[in-house]
């Protein structure tokens, strides 16, 4: 995936970038990810850059004996929480982690699954209301997503051909000359000779770095694309 960005050469910072809907779809999918997933996937790739104390909390749950938890399913629920938008995120052009839409579990009794409450869980060994553990897998095929558009090549959240401006602080704006000049003015850029355009290759590592930086930094694009050393 390509990302075109304007760079302030004097201050070694990203002023803003412009991209199509594919990259912005990846940015927007950050909102669908449970924090446990964020800590897990960024911690495995970028262990030297913890997200505050959340990495410590995650590791503590990993090391905690299940004896202290209400059920075994609680540990899975905390460390591997399900993404409710997984069925949509599988269509991203760049997948930063692999997660198939989850199946469900139920206790083996047909009464439980056919009851009015439809007693199912996304986590194995959760307790059914009947008091038994839900360990029998069942796959429920999701209904087809209904779209108002007939274009099968649209993006996940945005239309495929949409161009978007992304500021260094991850503000997302429709592209326009006035928006670009407004961003440059707010950043105090007066001399156009200090600006250069660069094109960056964006892969999984860059997106994970951007995800983590977006939680702890005011300049996530700069830290991701220019690898600025503090």
Name some characteristics of this structure.
single chain; 230 residues; alpha+beta; 2 domains; 5-stranded antiparallel sheet; two-stranded antiparallel ribbon; elongated; DUF674
Topology:
Layout: E1 2-8, E2 13-20, H1 21-28, H2 35-45, H3 54-63, H4 72-79, H5 86-89, E3 104-106, H6 110-114, E4 126-127, E5 133-134, E6 136-138, E7 163-167, E8 172-173, H7 177-186, E9 195-201, H8 204-216, H9 220-225
Antiparallel strand pairs: 1-2, 1-9, 2-7, 3-6, 4-5, 7-8
Helix pairs in contact: 2-8
| Low-pLDDT residue intervals, each spanning 5 or more residues | 144-150
The N- to C-terminal Cα distance equals 27 Å
Count of separate structural domains = 2
* Largest sheet descriptor: 5 strands, antiparallel
> Which percent bin holds the helix content?
25-40%
| Spatial strand order of the main sheet | 8-7-2-1-9
- Our count of helices gives 9
Category by helix and strand content: alpha+beta
How would the global form be characterised?
A: elongated
**SSE ordering:** EEHHHHHEHEEEEEHEHH
The average pLDDT is: 81
Rg, Cα atoms, Å: 22 Å
The number of strands is 9
Summarize the entry for a quick read.
Pfam families: DUF674 (PF05056). With 230 residues, the protein is α+β, with helices and mostly antiparallel strands. The chain is built from 9 helices and 9 strands.
């Amino acid at each position: 995936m390509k990302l075109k960005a304007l760079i302030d050469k004097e201050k070694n910072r990203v002023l803003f970038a412009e991209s199509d809907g594919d990259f912005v779809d990846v940015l927007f999918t950050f909102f669908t990810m449970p924090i446990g997933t964020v800590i897990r996937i960024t911690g495995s790739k970028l262990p030297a850059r913890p997200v505050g104390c959340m990495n410590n909390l995650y590791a503590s749950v990993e090391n905690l004996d299940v004896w202290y938890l209400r059920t075994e399913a609680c540990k899975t629920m905390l460390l591997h929480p399900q993404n409710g938008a997984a069925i949509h995120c599988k269509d991203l052009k760049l997948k930063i982690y692999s997660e198939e839409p989850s199946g469900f579990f139920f206790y083996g009794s047909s009464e439980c699954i056919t009851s009015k409450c439809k007693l199912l869980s996304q986590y194995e060994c959760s307790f059914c209301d009947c008091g038994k553990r839900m360990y029998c897998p069942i796959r429920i095929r999701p209904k087809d997503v209904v779209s108002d558009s007939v274009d099968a090549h649209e993006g996940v959240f945005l239309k495929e051909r949409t161009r978007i401006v992304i500021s260094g602080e991850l503000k997302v704006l429709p592209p326009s000359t006035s928006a670009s000049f407004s961003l440059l003015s707010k950043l105090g850029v007066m001399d156009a000779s200090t600006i250069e355009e660069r094109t960056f290759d964006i892969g999984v590592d860059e997106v994970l770095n951007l995800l983590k930086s977006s939680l702890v930094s005011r300049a996530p694009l700069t830290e991701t694309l220019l690898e600025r050393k503090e």
